[in-house]
Fold this protein.
Amino acid sequence: MDIISVATVFHVPNPQQMDLASSSPICQEINTSVIQAITANPVYRPRGRYNIKDESVRAKIGKFAVEHGPSKASKNFGIPVSTAFSLKKAFEMEASSSGKQLTVLQRKKRGRPPKMEEFIREKLKLYLLSLRASGGVVNGKIAVATARALYLYYCPFHLRENGGPVVIDRSFSKSIFRYLGMVKRKGTKAAKKVPEDFPRIQAEFLKAVKDLIVAKSIPAELVINIDETGLHYTFTGGYTMEVIGSTQVPIVAKEDKRQITAVMGITMSGVVLPPQILYQGKTVACHPPKNVKFPSTWDIWHSETHWANEETVLRYINKVIIPFVQHIKAHSHMAQSQPALLIMDIYKSHVTTSVLEFLKQNGIIHVIVPPNCTSELQPLDSIFNRVLKQKMAQNFNTWYAKSIYEHLERQQNIQNIEVNMKLSFIKPLHAAWMIEAINSMSEDKQLVKQCWEAVGIQHPFCSIQQTCAVPVHEFDPARLGITVNTVPSFDIETLARRMLGNQVKPDQEFNVISIAPNTIKGVLEGQQFIWNRQTDGSFEAVIAVPPGANDAPASEKLCAASSTAVVVATLAVQRSASVSQGGPV
């Protein structure tokens, strides 16, 4: 191939047209390299393991990715990061929906989703349009529950859980509303905004919490957060689906805000305290019927508006928080003078004089979450309350589907079905949903700990180990699973400095020789001292010996290099001795 044809075919410069003769050979050499690159056979990289067919391997990779991240899963199993991320997401969704330990992770069926049976589509359309025409709320939960009931009645084996291809989920409801030509309509309001100087407020709040925990040596089991949250009887929401172009969106009982108040409490160690449930009314007649069996530790009460007030807050502190704190102290052999820490928002019923005085009388220190910052700084608001409402909504969804199914079993016309939403009928059902939701969340200790981590509150130095969470239905200290042995995460020198307090300044050179239940031996600024515990729990240096002398009994020695087991044993003995003497832990 000559120079001219090269320039014509591959659109590269013609060396004969170069301005400088010296440039012509260079241009021709470049042209030759370009031609070779263009005409060479392409080299294809082998395709990665994007399609993993073994369902048990898929579950194994998904679990590993959840625990260690997609990047490590990609390196460990030799798969692309995108595949590891997809399996992680699929594993999380399947685990949350099934609630079981997954050993297999099924693959999604390829292609278009199965088409809904025409007769089910028409019946669903008739019901949703009839419900909307009567002023009822039509939303995704109602559509999913109704469609599920229709499938269970007419063709149950088409559902995924029965081996079929149909999955009724959020995307399913969206496709239904597109088919019906309906869009979401809802009134809006201004979003909550945190203060402009939130970083400063956050830093000050977290520091105040940490300083109190350190100064008072408060264990994680006695760091408590409480908050009130409203639970609607029905989860229809404040929006509905309406035909596109509608100017009026009437909703029957739109202002019906029937709900109760649940006062929840959690500890930094992962325990859910028994709740206080407030119904609207003036007497116990407003409570659910007696055949509803609430756990005996729950405080079921009422107020005129169902919202918490000064009286209900005092009742909750007296019936739940104080007994819980006393059980923790007794079972973990803490001194009765050991304070607890209560974190709560600035709700007016929390900060009345009588409430704060009552907390002080019972050795409970309080910290108030700054105004307009509860969504960012209050543990219960970060995750717990949202998950509780989601579980309640799921229970409502299941009940609604069952109601539609039962009407269909009675051969009732789909257009004439009316689900009973009367308070007298829904109240006991709502109580059962609430018991199931709170009990299941009480068993998820990791969820509770994530609430504290989400707002940045961490225990600075120690935590009493637990083997199980507190069962909400049995508030028994013997079931708390708390062990006496406490292993602080600081070294022996720091522990000795804490015990001695102001007797050892932070800038002084201090080396610990031994620690016994009532005696500390160490070298302070080159001089050896022995500190003995007094009857009031404080330490006093009563003997000074030359450096190098070490006549401590072998049974009392605990060098800084001692094993963790010895540290645990010594601290347990020390705590026991302190309680018997009435001194501080």
Remarks:
- The chain is about 45% helix and 10% strand.
- The first helix runs from residue 3 to 10.
